Amino acid sequence: MWPSLPLSSMSPMPEFATRFELPALPFERHSLEPDVSRAQVDLLYSHYHRRHIDTLNARGATIHGHSLSSLAEHDGNAIRRSAQEAWNLVFFWHGLSAGSVAVPAVLARRIDQAFGGIGALQYRWRAHVHDVAEGWSWLTVDASGDLELLASPTGERPVGAAPLLAIALAEDAYRIDYRGRCGDYFDALWPHMNWDYAQLNLEATG
C-alpha cells in the first residue's frame, strides 16, 4: 500500500483547481540546525521541490482534477516523474523532525528482526546511502511484513514495497552543507528521523 499523506497537495484537486501549491514544511526551516542549515533546507525546498511543482503547473489542463499520486501514474514521462518526485519530497519532509523522536516499541521490534537493532539499521542505511549516491534511499516494508532498504532513481518510487521513511539524495539535498559527502549528510539527518511517522506508515500497511 502506498501511503496517503494528510496534506492538501496529496488530495484530489477540486474541479475548479488548475494548479498545485508548494506544501508547507512540517517544521521551521531553521529547525534542523546545526545538523542541516536553513540555507540547505531552502535549496531543497524553495528551489528543487518548487521546480517540480512548477513543472506540473506548467501543464495546465493536463493536471486538472488530479492528485500527485494519480499524476505519478500518468503516461507522460515528464509529468509522471515530476509528480512522483514532488510526492517523494513531501514524504521525505514529513519523515524528519525538529527534535529527537524515540523509536516506537512495535517498530523497534520489527527493526530488531530485520536488521538486528537500531544501531545496525543506522550502519546499514548509511552504507546504503553511500552506495546509492543519487535518487532515493528508502526504509520500506514488503508484502510479507519484512523491513528492507531499497533504492529508486529520481522521480521514481521503490518497487514491491511500501515506504516508511526516505532519504533524498538529489545533489541539492546536501551540496551546501556536505558537498558530496552523502555519508556525513546521512549522519546529520539521523537524529531528526521521525520514527512516529514511520510507525504510522507501517500501521497503514495493515
TrEMBL record:
<dbReference type="GO" id="GO:0046872">
    <property type="term" value="F:metal ion binding"/>
</dbReference>
<protein>
    <recommendedName>
        <fullName>Superoxide dismutase</fullName>
        <ecNumber>1.15.1.1</ecNumber>
    </recommendedName>
</protein>
<dbReference type="InterPro" id="IPR019832">
    <property type="entry name" value="Mn/Fe_SOD_C"/>
</dbReference>
<dbReference type="InterPro" id="IPR036314">
    <property type="entry name" value="SOD_C_sf"/>
</dbReference>
<comment type="function">
    <text>Destroys radicals which are normally produced within the cells and which are toxic to biological systems.</text>
</comment>
<keyword id="KW-0560">Oxidoreductase</keyword>
<dbReference type="InterPro" id="IPR036324">
    <property type="entry name" value="Mn/Fe_SOD_N_sf"/>
</dbReference>
<feature type="domain" description="Manganese/iron superoxide dismutase C-terminal">
    <location>
        <begin position="107"/>
        <end position="199"/>
    </location>
</feature>
<dbReference type="GO" id="GO:0004784">
    <property type="term" value="F:superoxide dismutase activity"/>
</dbReference>
<dbReference type="Pfam" id="PF00081">
    <property type="entry name" value="Sod_Fe_N"/>
</dbReference>
<dbReference type="Pfam" id="PF02777">
    <property type="entry name" value="Sod_Fe_C"/>
</dbReference>
<dbReference type="InterPro" id="IPR001189">
    <property type="entry name" value="Mn/Fe_SOD"/>
</dbReference>
<dbReference type="InterPro" id="IPR019831">
    <property type="entry name" value="Mn/Fe_SOD_N"/>
</dbReference>
<comment type="similarity">
    <text>Belongs to the iron/manganese superoxide dismutase family.</text>
</comment>
<keyword id="KW-0479">Metal-binding</keyword>
<feature type="domain" description="Manganese/iron superoxide dismutase N-terminal">
    <location>
        <begin position="19"/>
        <end position="97"/>
    </location>
</feature>
